[in-house]
Amino acid sequence: MPSRTTxxxxxxxxxxxxxxxxxxxxxxxxxxxxxGDTAPDGREQEEARHLNSPLLLTLLLLxxxxxxxxxxxxxxxxxxxxxxxVFVAVMVQALPFLVLGVLLSAAIAVxxxxxxxxxxxxxxxxxxxxxxxxxxxxxxxxxxxSxxxxxxLVRRGVTPAAALAxxxxxxxxxxxxxxxxxxxxxxxxxxxxARFVASLxxxxxxxxxxxxxxxxxxxxxxxxxxxxxxSKGAAxxxxxxxxxxxxxxxxxxGAMAAATLKAVVPADWxxxxxxxxxxxxxFLAALAVLLSICSEADAFVAASLTQFSLxxxxxxxxxxxxxxxxxxxxxxxxxxxxxxxxFAPATxxxxxxxxxxxxxxxx
Amino acid sequence: xNRLAQTALLFLLGATLLHAGTTDLYLRYVKEGLRPLVLxxxxxxxxTAAATLWYDRRGASTHDGGTPVHDHHRExxxxxxxxxxxxxxxxxxxxxxxxxxxxxxxxxLTKPFGFPALPxxxxxxxxxxxxxxxxxxxxxxxxxxxRELKITGFVTLDREGAPYLVRxxxxxxxxxxxxxxxxxxxxxxPVLRPDTWLEITGTYTPRRTKDPVNDGPIPYLExxxxxxxPTPHDPYDETWNT
Lengths: 363, 242
Known about the structure:
heterodimer, A: flat, disordered N terminus, B: CATH 2.40.50.140
């Protein structure tokens, strides 16, 4: 390919001759004549001037192919191999659910009129929260699907409190996850009930908490362009493209974090915390955040943590689907960092307290 | 990353998923049951890429100049990270989890629901690693005594160099994979390389030990012969917990 020259002239010429790209850049940069007034924008403009991203992508892929032997050599150590396997596994496992969630969210954003949600949900936000929370039971998927759907609900005018209750409850209380829990804990049917009750409670409480204390300016304003003036098909696929590349990027961040933990942290640390009743709850809650296991599989992992009390394992099951590294990255991407930094710790604390209480009562 | 690069990336990602799903590659990472979803996701991603191009062209010819989308925010730069899984799957295609994870994770043996009757007769009995371990620990090897057993798994050496036969179990994806281990004794081959797949022929022995990682129970197996075998079609055992 001729575009593989490393000099600066080729890329510049190509940037100028790509009309489509030029139009979009022009939009994004607001004219693009000045070298930018804010720092990050300025950098991006600089990039736009010298290298356009399709070319950069081609260069990146070709370079990687050229140097594949040294890359493979560097990754041959067992730790790195194990890291890569877990990373790829999380991606391959989560992408289908992300894609399903994105399709659903695009359908909500394009085909469902906002008036539908106005009619379906109670007018008062405090009442809409439990309805939305319970509605989470019908989205059969794991947490990767619920983030884009919740984002679409907010953009569609659903009160954020209700959308957040849905975001938290959907991955934890849907039939697939509850069935998996029942299979994983054959001797403790109470676990299924406790998981359902605790998850729904946390989801609704977070919704109400947001209704009382939340401020809309923490939520990033709907970043997406409105799709008015476009055909429905163009709007639908535009939304799918945007959401997959966007949420997918954050999924990669989360998958890398989870792989690092799985490959690096020795499992014998588990035994240390298991003895102490309070410590074990906190430990498994932290572990749920760090491991970022899909909510459809976490019950089996919890079942194998036999050194820990049932309450501690319930905490693992309640915290995991609501907040983990992967989810945090995706929430920060969808709703903004200011939101995620407040929402995640609050969810974590509430989930730990509620599941400890539920565990003491029910298990 | 602009629209065109995103489209190219979506296409690559979809093609990679299709490649993994149509070969046995996906079995290194996720359970077999996820295959339709992986294929579907690959198709949707490719359709998305095609649709984006199609609407761009149509938009460019009807409205003059570019699509009517006015993306007022920058296209996310985080999308670049999506090149990593594509490169990892195409260039490296990391192997299924093996002895490294097995030595760092405790045995995940749990009490089976029951012990279905085994086929009788003089023929060697083919057992899964988890089946042998479950019967040896929780059934005191009642159905296993005086039988010739054949068990397949990969070799793992612990920190002292003691050999184990291991099979990783999977519930969803390799991130939740957990090993079940059998310790080897008797006529163990003198040189064992970790991650070699072996078919062990041997007999039950009541001897037991504890996993140094999580104190989980590990039964011993008295080895008669060991034969190297190719990696099975599905490197993980999906029979339990599903």
